[in-house]
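DATA SHEET
Item: assembly model
Revision: 1
Owner: S.N.
Input lines:
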Amino acid sequence: MDNPSVNKPLNLGIAGLGTVGIGVLRLLQNNQKTITNRAGRPIRIHAVNAKNRHKNRNIDLTTFKWYEDPLDLATDPDIDVVVELIGGTNGAAYELVCEAIKNKKAVVTANKALIALHGNELAKMAASQNVPLLFEAAVAGGIPIIKTIKEALAADRLIEIGGILNGTCNYMLTTMTRTGRGFEDILKETQQLGYAEADPSTDIDGLDAAHKLAILASLGFGYTFNFKDIFVEGIRNISPHDIHYAQELGYTIKLVGMAQYHSENKLELRVHPALLPQSSPLARVNGVINAIRTKGEFSGYLMLEGAGAGEGPTATAVCADIIDIARGNTIPMWGTDWNELRPATLVPNSDFNKAYYIRLIVEDKPGVVADIATIFKENNVSLRSLLQHKNHMTTDSENTVPIVLVTHKNRESSLLKSLKAIYDLPAILEKPIIIRIEEP
Ligand SMILES: NC(=O)C1=CN([C@@H]2O[C@H](COP(=O)(O)OP(=O)(O)OC[C@H]3O[C@@H](n4cnc5c(N)ncnc54)[C@H](O)[C@@H]3O)[C@@H](O)[C@H]2O)C=CC1
Ligand SMILES: N[C@@H](CC=O)C(=O)O
Ligand code: NA
């Protein structure tokens, strides 16, 4: 087949020279010959942009044109593809992507926040200008999950997608589990490794995982929904004590992002810490590694695991998109026309139906356990186990004791109602800790 663009170089304009941007420059330089062969044409960096031209990045930028304003990349007639690696949803990144599309440039971005919040609007713009907009790096860095859903699973209807979507949280929880160290202590170390978002609260409070989950759900199920309706809870309240008790019960604590198809126009999307049975495949995914499992009506279960963040893996995903554009792959952004996506509502957490881990700090005196059990009974919450632990959590009182409860599957509204009443008991000394249990 004749391809008019064979051997014509593909010219890139790259905005953002941080962890991912520098990774892309290095990868394109190191593997230039292989990439040219596989792309079928040379791929050249024409111009770059970042906030600070003079920062030492240990890489030679003198052969590229430098723009002070990222929007100049969108209007430069010599640029074919704008690569947005700035991050964030407002301001520079959004404007650059819109301007690039308006100027009929292909766009590659690693920006999950942008795609999660403005994806459908951008898909519509890209379709109207007939340009590709690719974002493999935006979900789970180097794991080729976007391509897998869009291409390999294109024939199937997915009913579940989820897993471990944030490398920073997974690294932190893994290190807390291995060392018994506390949350704050480990946070700084994680930031230095280059995995965390510019504002680490985006990672720790679950927002980054929610961005990725929203993209996976739109792509995999074919729906749009209100991003704010995703249930999101981060890992700030996870203590080494809960990690320890969970281990005693045969579980590991991970931050999970789960999307489930419930019925026509109804989806369940949630991000929260969860107790996973130690024998489950996700429980064994440690460190900065991410893992995503899909369940399709015909394909069944499929799990992909790999580096969800970091310079090399993320750059590989960005460059794969660039190579796709060079090859002329023009699959629409959501794998289907943007106007094929239907609106869905999301299940509120009060309607979740899960098993729960609960930790209470109680005054050790007769009748407390009976009072707790009565409240659960009144609210129709069924318990699976109750363990009273020797107190190694607090030093202030010998009469204080942790109680760890595990429930069967219950409606979350009933559980929350019970816990509110339990917290009102005078013998309950701290706000109850609740962690959902994710069982296969
Ligand atoms: N770091 C990682 O492992 C991963 C990051 N991502 C995504 O990739 C994107 C980039 O992330 P990082 O490289 O980690 O960020 P970073 O903070 O290391 O780099 C951001 C770059 O953008 C530039 N920049 C910021 N504001 C700008 C503006 N107004 N105009 C021009 N340039 C501006 C900065 O100078 C810097 O060069 C984000 O969307 C992030 O979510 C995706 C997957 C993994
Ligand atoms: N901050 C993210 C980086 C990539 O998406 C993470 O920790 O997973
Ligand atoms: Na990816």
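QC remark: The chain has three domains: 10-138, 145-307, 350-437.
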